[in-house]
From TrEMBL, chain A:
This is 2-oxoacid:acceptor oxidoreductase subunit alpha. InterPro entries: 2-oxoacid/accept_OxRdtase_asu (IPR022367), PFOR_II (IPR033412), Pyruvate:ferred/Flavod_OxRd (IPR050722), Pyrv/ketoisovalerate_OxRed_cat (IPR019752), Pyrv_Fd/Flavodoxin_OxRdtase_N (IPR002880), Pyrv_flavodox_OxRed_cen (IPR002869), THDP-binding (IPR029061), Transketo_C/PFOR_II (IPR009014). The lineage of its organism: Bacteria, Bacillati, Bacillota, Bacilli, Bacillales. The keyword DNA-binding does not apply. Residues 476-564 form the Pyruvate:ferredoxin oxidoreductase core domain. CDD domains: TPP_PYR_PFOR_IOR-alpha_like (cd07034). PANTHER family: 2-OXOGLUTARATE OXIDOREDUCTASE SUBUNIT KORA, PYRUVATE-FLAVODOXIN OXIDOREDUCTASE-RELATED. One of its GO terms (molecular function) is oxidoreductase activity, acting on the aldehyde or oxo group of donors. Residues 14-174 form the Pyruvate/ketoisovalerate oxidoreductase catalytic domain. SUPFAM superfamilies: Pyruvate-ferredoxin oxidoreductase, PFOR, domain III, Thiamin diphosphate-binding fold (THDP-binding), TK C-terminal domain-like. Residues 210-451 form the Pyruvate flavodoxin/ferredoxin oxidoreductase pyrimidine binding domain. GO terms for biological process: response to oxidative stress.
TrEMBL record, chain B:
This is 2-oxoacid:ferredoxin oxidoreductase subunit beta. Residues 48-195 form the Thiamine pyrophosphate enzyme TPP-binding domain. GO terms for molecular function: iron-sulfur cluster binding; metal ion binding; oxidoreductase activity, acting on the aldehyde or oxo group of donors, iron-sulfur protein as acceptor; thiamine pyrophosphate binding. InterPro entries: 2-oxoacid:Fd_oxidoreductase (IPR051457), OFOB (IPR011896), PFO_beta_C (IPR032686), THDP-binding (IPR029061), TPP_enzyme_TPP-bd (IPR011766). Its cofactor is thiamine diphosphate; Mg(2+); [4Fe-4S] cluster. Residues 199-263 form the Pyruvate ferredoxin oxidoreductase beta subunit C-terminal domain. One of its GO terms (biological process) is cellular respiration. The keyword Ubl conjugation does not apply. Pfam families: PFO_beta_C, TPP_enzyme_C. It comes from the Bacteria. Keywords: Iron, Iron-sulfur, Magnesium, Metal-binding, Oxidoreductase, Thiamine pyrophosphate.
Amino acid sequence: MIEQLSWKVGGQQGEGIESTGEIFAIALNRMGYYLYGYRHFSSRIKGGHTNNKIRVSTNEVRSVSDDLDMLIAFDQETIDVNAHELHSGGIIIGDAKFKPVKPEGCKAELVIIPFSEIATELGTSLMKNMVAIGATSAALGVDTATYQAVVEEIFGRKGEKVVTSNMEAIQRGADAFVQSAGNSVQTLSLKKADGKNRMFMIGNDAIALGALAGGARLMAAYPITPASEIMEYLIKKLPEFGGTVIQTEDEIAAATMAIGSNYAGVRTLTASAGPGLSLMMEAIGLSGITETPLVIVDTQRGGPSTGLPTKQEQSDLLAMIYGTHGEIPKIVIAPSTVEEAFYDAIEAFNLAEEYQCPVILLSDLQLSLGKQTVEPLDYHKIKIRRGKLNDQELPEREDKAYFKRFEVTDDGVSNRVIPGTKNGVFHVTGVEHDETGKPSEVPENRKDQMEKRLRKISNLSFPVPIYKREEHEESDVLLIGFNSTRGSIEEAIPRLEEDGFKVNHAQIRLVHPFPSDELLPMLKAAKKVVVVEHNATGQLASLVKMNAGHGDKIESLLKYDGNPFLPGDIHQQCKEMLANGHI
Amino acid sequence: MATFKDFRNQVKPNWCPGCGDFSVQAAIQRAAANVGLEPDDLAVVSGIGCSGRISGYINAYGFHGIHGRSLPIAQGVKMANRDLTVIASGGDGDGFAIGMGHTIHAMRRNIDVTYIVMDNQIYGLTKGQTSPTSAEGFKTKSTPSGSIESSLSIMELALSSGCGFVAQSFSTDLKDLVAIIELGIQHKGFSLINVFSPCVTFNKVNTYDWFKQNLVSLNDIEGYDPTNRMLAMQTLMEHDGLVKGLIYHNPTRPSYQESVRGYSAEALSKQNLALPEEKFTELMAEFM
């Protein structure tokens, strides 16, 4: 009996690799297993190697596993590219059609099954994926009937016959595995799961659902990988709530349109990735100086320029904190799990209205697209806070005096009215202005307005600015990360502890304004600090050093080859760094 | 009921004496009163440039944005609160150079915004460079040997972009201009009104006199029919775009707001944001 399984299906892009993994994963999620799926794909529609790696466990998992138990191959390339991940005792199941060959030195068992032939016999070669799912199930000891409901949901619209033949394909795959492998292959029997029904979603689903729960009623966006799922979810759901998604001509329009509707009182978001964020920079400054709430999701991917559009990276961090010319108050939040992505999306809208400034919800490709099992979300944690928003009619104005929308206050936040409010007329401008929004270059006024705006976030309160695992009063090493590296770091920790190191962990959730006071005690208590991040220049490490000091203890563990950190990467490299004492 | 005076505020425009923009400002104020608006019902969103300052000179909700982006901001305002009347305005550089992408797509999209462009064929605020509507050969600081790029036929472009209300006017014809803006506000969809608004400081070619001599009123063209798109295009070509009046009007094309599935009839800005628990449970179940 195994408690955890790592499974991968691979082939050419456009062959249905994604849906194969999807059907397999949904069925197992419903059995109560925890899943984590990560897709390797390219920026093209057809052709090119693609794979979907899925981890199945009886415990929560949040990272791509180091190795592989089972590989389903629809072409030889899949075997050649991925076989090294298989450990001895692992299984490759290949389609007889391409005459699979095991690479030299590969210790896994190769089982050959005529996926395509069986599928063709049943009507269409498209069903080879279902045959593969059947073979997988036999190898894992999972009952093929498990798939009935999922297959009905997916193919039900196409009619009873399609459902039946797909189920038959699964059964035939299972039978074929038993026949071919017989007793020669040791099956990987999975320990039974708890049978609880949990959600199975990607980070982008959680962000979109969070936006909806957080009161967003409009979204303006331009499609881009890996952010598009957010707009695709919301265009399906927002009409039920009277709202919609507007697909704009570019990201400049997306951000400025969102500013327009936030100014007019509707929670509006936009979402993009690096190239789009670069185009939004001027608008971010406009939101800052006009004190208009704005929520932007940045799903980081490989940069610069078009970079690695379908690969993992965390290189937008400093651009998101400092980007836009001039100086504005800004909040940058970086959820580290899918659950956090949901709650942070809600919080982003609250903060944007409370502090009347741009809020960037930072994600990365692994968090945005990694699909995982999520415990049900807590409805009672959804709170809408709109700050100093006045929705009441105001007293009649004298001499057409404008409402003091930018009144200088102690906390820097001014009362806000929205267009349409009776007697609330005021002016908004990206030019420096006085308390009523009238352009002004008077030095005293400039100073007052600048300081008022910047002071808004000086006392920002954010529920959990750092996710901490602080097991040791004094640690040999403190691991610091942000966004999706959380899962791999968490898995590397017990291995490092087994090696005899005392490890603490801080995952930075609020990256700006930086929670220095929260982090300092952990930095002080650490002999060494390793900042784990997906970029080439150590951006988070710079941020830590700049805000909290202790530069002499801090070293970077970087990965920028497009692939996510595996727990083993962090474990091995950290161990070497600690053993060599080069930090 | 508000009069045009109610749309005045106490701010003195920083335009040069004699600038065409003064009359455009007055025309917007009169048109707003004539169609029965109150200052609280109107949002004026403007871009950057001399004309962009207009949002600060009208007693209404004003938003002076960034260069070239008045239209996306204005469309966002309208989508958030469909009860507001939204006017976007700016200059030819703002709308037809840096903001051209938005202009074309706003026309295609057809959100109910009235876009008033003050076209002076030059960049004024940056002290005299060529603009997309400058004529070929036009000498400016940035084109000392004369512009070698062709001038945009913005009205023709509007017709080909699906704009349902295309009009052109001249800033001194206050009465006509007011009437056109009223029609533009009343049109349920995107309306483009290009107003020749001479720059007395930097454009010594396209002067008030030049426009008086060269502009042809569509009222003087026998049999002109603004619902005939083909005729509109032909007339524009025949007169090199130098016509004034209502060029094209298609009142039948539904606006974006009318076409969006599920879009709330009540202003979105007035909605209660709370999500009922049953609904949330239902949304979660879709991921199970």
